[in-house]
Amino acid sequence: MRKYVFSQFGAEWASAAAVFVISMIAGRMAADGMNLVQWAGAATAVMGSITLAVAVRVWAPEKRRA
Predict the structure, then answer these.
(1) What is the dihedral of CA 26, 24, 16, 19, to 10 degrees?
(2) Pairwise CA distance, residues 22 & 44, whole Å
(3) Per-residue pLDDT tens digits for 22-60
(4) What is the 3-state secondary structure (H, E, C) of 1-66?
(5) In the structure, what pLDDT confidence band is assigned to residue 12 with cuts at 50, 70 and 90?
(6) What is the pLDDT of residue 2?
(7) Is 18 within 8 Å of 53 (Cβ atoms)?
(8) Which is it for the CA torsion 10, 13, 17, 19, positive or negative?
(9) Which of 1, 2, 27, 53 has its CA 20 to 30 A from that of 11?
């Protein structure tokens, strides 16, 4: 189980889930009504989760030394 959690595959799925959940929460709060500061915070959270997802996919894994 731990191999899956710490694997590249698990990291990609977890980051994709983070983007989905954070966007869903921000959208739900936006539907209820938010002021400008709350909008800025929601946009920052969404952009941060997208940055995490891109970094997980782009960052090359470390090569193991023999």
Answers:
(1) -10
(2) 10
(3) 999 999 998 989 999 999 999 999 999 999 999 988 886
(4) CHHHHCCHHHHHHHHHHHHHHHHHHHHHHHHHCCCHHHHHHHHHHHHHHHHHHHHHHHCCCCCCCC
(5) confident
(6) 65
(7) yes
(8) positive
(9) 27
